[in-house]
Write a structure and sequence with these properties.
By secondary structure, the protein is an alpha/beta fold. The protein has 9 helices and 8 strands. It has helices at about 1-15, 25-30, 50-60, 85-95, 100-105, 115-130, 155-175, 190-200, 235-240, and strands spanning about 40-45, 75-80, 105-110, 135-140, 175-185, 205-210, 215-220, 230.
Length: about 250
């Protein structure tokens, strides 16, 4: 009996050590944050440029595990037109991947209002994940639509808290990684409240800040990793935006 328990413990330890993680693939960032794992609900704060980093994750998730990926399709929800598939296709070029193939592996949904975003998350996300088998879901600028003056203040806070709770539970239930970017909205009267809700519901919180010469990433919250700050120099080639060939996408 004792030998069986020891064997099971060793097996569990080996499984944990081999757990697939999705990293940024940037040495300085990976040194402080080794990567996302199944069941994580993460919020990434930062300027508009963080969309380029998240685009890298959308491409890396499609790589096989030997190359640091998840061998998976990706569900991508673009809130308030905060991002575009163009940046994802640009990132594909840095991995020498066919852009048509990468595009075909992205289940792209778009929301222009808080009501549409809520509907996509609460009613469409599960269907999209189950149909595609995606192991990664990304919501770009999740708070943006809820910061609009046209949305009632109390309703915005209540619904935002509801969808953040839903995403946290969804990630655990389906054992996928969910990443929501929270772009800079300093000065908005509702911003601090939504940030507090985000920090409470997410199990992983990363904050990116940028200076004219360097960038910093801070791991603010994680259930197991040591928290801290790391400095990194962005690769200018990966941050540049150039004209991409026109492709057709399926917008749900």
């Amino acid at each position: 009996m004792q030998q069986t328990l020891i064997f099971q413990a060793q097996l569990t330890q080996k499984t944990a050590s081999k757990m697939t993680r999705l990293s940024f693939g940037v040495a300085d960032i990976d040194s402080i944050f080794p990567g996302f794992k199944a069941g994580d609900f993460a919020v990434i704060y930062g300027p508009q440029s963080v969309t380029s980093l998240v685009s890298q994750l959308c491409v890396r998730a499609q790589l096989n595990e030997q190359k640091g990926g998840l061998d998976s399709k990706v569900v991508f929800i673009d809130a308030a037109s905060s991002s575009s598939l163009g940046t994802i296709l640009e990132a594909a070029g840095f991995h020498d991947l066919d852009q048509e193939t990468v595009s075909g592996n992205i289940i792209n949904m778009r929301a222009y209002t808080a009501y549409r975003l809520t509907s996509l998350i609460m009613e469409k996300l599960e269907e999209a994940v189950e149909a595609s088998g995606a192991k990664l879901a990304v919501i770009s600028d999740i708070a943006g639509p809820f910061l609009n003056d046209n949305v009632d203040d109390q309703e915005a806070k209540a619904v935002y808290r509801q969808i953040m709770s839903y995403l946290s539970s969804f990630a655990k239930k389906h054992q996928i990684t969910i990443i929501a970017t929270y772009l800079s909205h300093e000065g908005n009267f509702r911003n601090s409240t939504l940030q507090e809700i985000s920090n409470t519901k997410a199990n992983t919180v990363l904050r990116f800040t940028k200076t004219p010469y360097t960038s910093e990433v801070e791991l603010e919250k994680h259930p197991t990793y040591m928290l801290g700050i790391a400095e990194f120099t962005p690769d200018i080639r990966k941050q540049s935006i150039f004209k991409m060939p026109t492709l057709s996408y399926k917008i749900l």
